[in-house]
Amino acid sequence: MKNRTILEHWSNEELIGIDSLQKNNGEIIILNSFNVSNTDNISYYSSPLCLTTVESLEKFNSDIWTSFEVFSNRLEIKDEYVVFGGEGGMGNEGFIACTDKSNDFLWALFFTDSNPFYKIEFDHNEIHAYSSSNLKYRVNLINPEIIVIEQKDWE
Length: 155
Prior knowledge:
This is SMI1/KNR4 family protein. It comes from Flavobacterium sp. CFS9. This protein is mainly beta. It has one domain: Thrombin, subunit H. Helices cover 10% and strands 54% of the residues. The protein contains two helices and 14 strands. It has helices at residues 4-11, 54-60, and strands at residues 14-16, 20-23, 27-37, 42-53, 65-67, 69-70, 75-77, 81-87, 94-100, 105-111, 117-123, 126-131, 135-140, 147-151. Strand 9 (94-100) and strand 10 (105-111) form a beta hairpin. The longest helix is centred in the N-terminal third of the chain and has 8 residues, at 4-11. The radius of gyration is 15 Å and the shape is globular. The model has no long low-confidence stretch (mean pLDDT 95).
């Protein structure tokens, strides 16, 4: 069943401003996003931490919502989905969203430290979202909580 609260905020171009996967049924998967530096390079990670709901988050903090702006191309996938990305209310934030062909919200990933996403591609059931911080987020279309992050300049 679709969650009225999350759909209302989506229609007002707002997402929850926490590292998370936000689903149209109100389920929220909080993500643990971090990086590890060594002398040669930096590795980036994002993985599920816990499952909650939009109602539970709002119970403890009603100010969880942030505006978003679409910056990337809108990519139609398998004649069924539309995927796009952009930035949150702050310059360091980014999001990747998936709707159906009628523009009905299915899910969105929000990252507090990704920078905006400017380019979306699709390959072998993976969304490739390129951020302005020269990172490529590889996201599984069907299970978007499966995320691989790699350094990659985009053209």
